[in-house]
Amino acid sequence: MPLYVKNKNRKTAYNSLIFALAIGMVIGWWQVPRSSFAQSETDSIRQIPLSASLFDSESKIITNGEYQVRFGIYRIDRTEADPYPSNADAGNRVWEETQAITVKNGIFRASLGSVTPFPESLNFENGNYYIGIRMGTDSEMVPRKKLGSVPRAINSQFLQGRTIGTKSGNIPVLGSGGKINIKNLPTGNGNSELVLGNDSRFDNIDQIHEQNTDTGTTETIFNVGSETALAGNNFDLTVSSSATPPALRYNGTTQAWQFSNDGTTFTDVSGGGGGLSGTGTNGYAAYWTGTGTLAAEAQLSVSRGGTGAASLNDLITLGTHTTGNYVASVANGNGITGGAAGSEGGALTLAVDLLDSADGTGSISSNSGLEFAGTGSNELGLLQGCANGQGISWNDGTNVWECASFSAGLSGTGTNGYVTYWSGVSSLGSEAQLNVVRGGTGVDGSAASNGTLLIGNGSGYTLATITDGSGITVTEGAGTITIASTLGTSIDLASEVTGTLPVGNGGTGATTFTANGVLYGNTTGAVQVTAAGTNGQLFLGVTAGAPVFATMSSDATITNAGVLTIAADAVALTTDTTGNYVATITAGNGISGTSSSEGGTPTIALGALTANWDQTGAFDISLNNASSELQILESAGATFYGIFDVTDLSANRTYTFPDTSGTVLLS
């Protein structure tokens, strides 16, 4: 029966598909599952029962009455409406009929095939089929309804063309208990016949097949103890007819496979007995010492593919186990620059540079206004330990940069959207277009015409366009200017120019040249051309002579695509080179470094500043760790430090120092 679930203003039909009609009506429909089985085909079994519920655009059932409805079965679905009479894809319609259906309380029922029987060639097992419905003069509803299992019940008495019966090719009918009548089976003593239990041949026991006489099988599964539970039972496979035969057993009690050499004493397969042997220490590496024996060692030796060491530290000795540069490159870091690495014998250099990003938090005073901060206190930054509203100020009394408070601020007014500029030491002004004296144009270009240019006029700038000139046409476009000549676009060298253009007039002085050669000058005479080069040759100059193509030596070759290949072992370190790979490391301001002989380990470390370090870039230095602080050694005593810290803040704070010297008062 049809089932519905009402959800607010919509109805959902389970097992249904919704169609929209041209007049604004909707239809929800489904198939009622009914079993069909018969020994012979009847008219009713060749029909499809169908029921549907009809609603208008307001989800109300339609008016009771009789309607002309065309039903059609198609090989394809349709998702776009096809205006009446909806025959655009009639070629895919395998059946149709028109019925006068009665709608009562919004529901109608019909039996498809009751007016026009389905053709004998229509087999619902062959592919997908869809039902289309057209009511009255409306267009056929879309999408169509895909047929499910019920229409295929029409073919239920057939199975791939087979029918029920006892003849060759028929489908047999099972009797009581699912058994086939013995009368329908071939029996006797011939080939392909079953032997009955009362066959006289069973009187001679020698003709009965004996157990365990098979020597092979094509089956992939052999069951022992069929219909017997595992628990408490043993399932054995034995060999030979000996009183103590070797056996393989599944022990249902211990749930384990076992084997026995005498059929009496059984050992678990995983418990040993002819398997691997050997001893070892937990965590050691195992290796074969014989066909079935193992040994162990703490670290797998090099001869067995290991390292022979418990740690990877110091396994490689520079200079002994390596070749090439020890320091391939030195990459610049935040506040540090480096260079001269990557070539054997180069002098490695490091120096403090301008910071290019924020880094660290901490102290509140220092001699240079800087502090070492960051993880391990190995990064240089501006003082970051000042209180909210403070800045960094130089103190002549203590000769340090320190946190100080400033009272002065900015003032000024302006118009929304205007450009601001300094009108005093701490005041701002504004203007619609930034004046020329302040680096602006003083011109409003928001409504500039196509192709307009900004041109200086001696005292400022003006928006102007390029005008046509003699023989020149100018066209201004959106973001483009096109200049064209009215004197013609080309000169025909064949018809308008004769002779050979001499060198003095910008020509070559020659009429032909060698193919693939290179041109070269010959004082004031005609341009000369070299002989053609071959792939990978270089073009080389020759003193007091014409340049020529030459092939490189075998140490290095180059292709005509520009790919340079240096032969293997063309350059040997210490043979073709001299000096240390890193000759020296020059100490810089706040940086120290050392280098030693070839094979030594270069060291680089931060040290005390030897000169003022200036940070001129517009970047902050941040101590991004809550435990980082800025500390300065006391000016007298050299024992204690003044530590600058910031309490918990609700937002970022700026501490500005006034334009004055003095001592910071603490509350």
What would you say about this model in short?
By secondary structure, the chain is mainly β. The protein has two helices and 42 strands. The strands form 16 sheets. Strands 3-4-5-8 form a four-stranded antiparallel sheet, with no helix packed on it. A four-stranded antiparallel sheet has the order 7-6-9-10, with no helix packed on it. It has a four-stranded antiparallel sheet with strand order 11-12-13-14, with no helix packed on it.
Percentage of residues in DSSP E strands: 25-35%
By DSSP, the count of extended strands is 42
Strand order of the largest sheet: 3-4-5-8
| SS class | mainly beta
pLDDT < 50 runs, ≥5 residues: 1-42, 354-360
Task: Report the span from N to C terminus.
Answer: 88 Å
Give the proportion of residues in helices.
under 10%
Report mean pLDDT, rounded to a whole number. Answer: 75
What is Rg?
Answer: 50 Å
Shape: extended
Largest sheet: 4 strands, antiparallel
Number of helices: 2
